[in-house]
Amino acid sequence: MNEEVELNRRLVRQVNVLAGEGWPRPARVTYWNALSRSQLTYRRLNNMFQQAHHIGSSLYMEILRASGLTARQQLTLILDGHLQSCVDQDGFLQLTSHDYRLNPAMSPLSPFYANFRQLVRDAYIGPLGLRADELGHRLHLFRAYLDLQAINYIRSYCNNLPTTARDFDRLCQFAHDHHIALDFRTAAAYHNRYHGALTYPQNMKVQLCRNSLVRRANPARMIEFIVNIDTGDFVSEWNVYRTRPDGAVDGDPDHYSPAALYQVANTESFNYGIPHGGYFVWPRDRQSHRRLDIDQPRDSRIRARAKHYWKTPRPYTDLVKGPDDISAWRRVPVASRSQLYRAFIAANPENRNWGINRFLLMTPQYRRYHVSH
Predict the structure, then answer these.
(1) Buried-state track 217-242, b at ≥16 Cβ within 10 A, e below 16
(2) What is the C-alpha separation between 248 and 225, in angstroms, rounded?
(3) How many other CB atoms are found less than 10 A from the CB of residue 44?
(4) If DSSP codes are grouped into helix, strand and coil, which group holds residue 61?
(5) pLDDT score at 351
(6) Phi, psi (degrees; rounded to nearest 5) at 86
(7) DSSP 3-state assignment of 55?
(8) Burial of 71 (0-12, 13-18, 19+ CB in 10 A)
(9) How high is the pLDDT of residue 1?
(10) Over the stretch 171-195, which tens digit does the pLDDT of each residue have?
(11) Any residues with CB less than 8 A from the CB of 303 and at least 6 apart, and which?
(12) Do you find a cis peptide bond into 258, omega within 30 degrees of 0?
């Protein structure tokens, strides 16, 4: 009996803590009911309280849905009340909370991502998109942490893979195991920035998932990965950033070389809007990618410096529009690539580009590099 009383006292204390962390009463009632549905134990209390502080966990999503908050209020609760985000002197978003964090076990297929995307789409419907206010600015910067979450998950994915598997191998295995199709067709010009003379693209863009016709919480081409075509490794700002002694990310561009800034300039970027990618997009969403992703608020100083040094290529045509293009390009000798790419651009304007493998097949002098199905 004494143990039961103590457990209920702890539950009451937990609910009071949640109140102090900004959860409204309907959310706290949902938390209480979630624990009351089964016999309380100390272990269950501790585990559920931890899950309530893992943003993206099923319990967190359940109490967030029950909160009764508007889309904007939910976004504010997550970024301000829970993650305690702030923009530092370098314009870098720091997450300072010691209590809340993104759920470390969250898969790229977690409903959280599409639901968070929908919150942003609901809260920012005007023509200014995320440029409308300071919360929008922080949401723009926050997408980097969503990228980090997805990258870390894929890099730790090891089902039926050797330890030597590259990032792209792991991504493909993940897609295969979960029966999802990857998109290779969205243009990657902004992820092939160069300094000096452009020779040929180094990177490809792969988005997850390829397509969806869902009207709300649509996951199409939302999470993206930038992959070095030759190595199969992710190109990401998170490969470069260092951590300060206080645990914050060092976003001072003076602390990084121009070469290091290459990955910062060409990094992946979580999409709040829905890119076309060559697929159907509902009419009301056709400008969402431009409003929420392309017409951006100001970047951090390190991103701004990186994008100033590493320029977007013009003219430009994607090499990769499908998996066969990867294998085909890897067969082309490095010494032949620059000349071949110039011929490819001349013959394949972006609006009718079928990828490098098709071009190799149609060009006799390069046909030996073509990959057959």
Answers:
(1) bbbbbbbbbbbbbeebebbbbbebbe
(2) 24
(3) 13
(4) helix
(5) 61
(6) -150, 150
(7) strand
(8) middle
(9) 55
(10) 999 999 999 999 999 999 999 999 9
(11) 237, 264, 265
(12) no
pLDDT score of 350 = 58
Sites in the chain below the pLDDT cut of 50: none
- Residue 227 half-sphere exposure, CB side, CA atoms within 13 Å? 28
Backbone torsion region of residue 196, taken as left when φ is above 0, otherwise alpha when ψ lies between -120 and 50, otherwise beta: left
Supply angle C-alpha 200, 329, 364, rounded to 5: 100
CB atoms within 10 A of CB 270: 20
Tell me the per-residue pLDDT of 251-263, one tens digit each, with 9 for 90 and over.
Answer: 999 999 999 999 9
Beta strands in the chain (DSSP E): 54-55, 85-87, 93-95, 101-102, 203-208, 223-228, 242-243, 249-250
- DSSP H/E element including 300: none
Distance CA 268, CA 251 (A): 17
d(CA 349, CA 317) in angstroms, rounded, equals 7
**Total residue count of the chain as it appears in this document:** 373
Residues 173, 258: contact at Cβ < 8 Å? no
DSSP state, 200?
S
User: Average pLDDT, whole number, for the chain?
Assistant: 95
The two counts, helices (H) then strands (E), for the chain are 14, 8
Q: What is the pLDDT of residue 197?
A: 84
Q: What is the pLDDT of residue 293?
A: 97
| Cα(367)–Cα(146) distance, integer angstroms | 41
Handedness of CA 246, 249, 250, 252 (dihedral sign): negative
- Torsion over CA: 82, 84, 87, 92 (sign): negative
φ/ψ (deg, to 5) at 360 = -60, -40
Give how far Cα 237 sits from Cα of 225, 289, 297, 302, Å: 11, 21, 18, 10
| 3-class DSSP assignment, residue 315 | coil
For residue 89, give the nearest of 297, 240, 259, 254 by alpha carbon: 254
DSSP conformation letters of 320-366? -SSHHHHHHHHHS-HHHHHHHHHHHHHH--GGG---HHHHHHH-GGG
φ/ψ of residue 361, rounded to 5: -65, -40
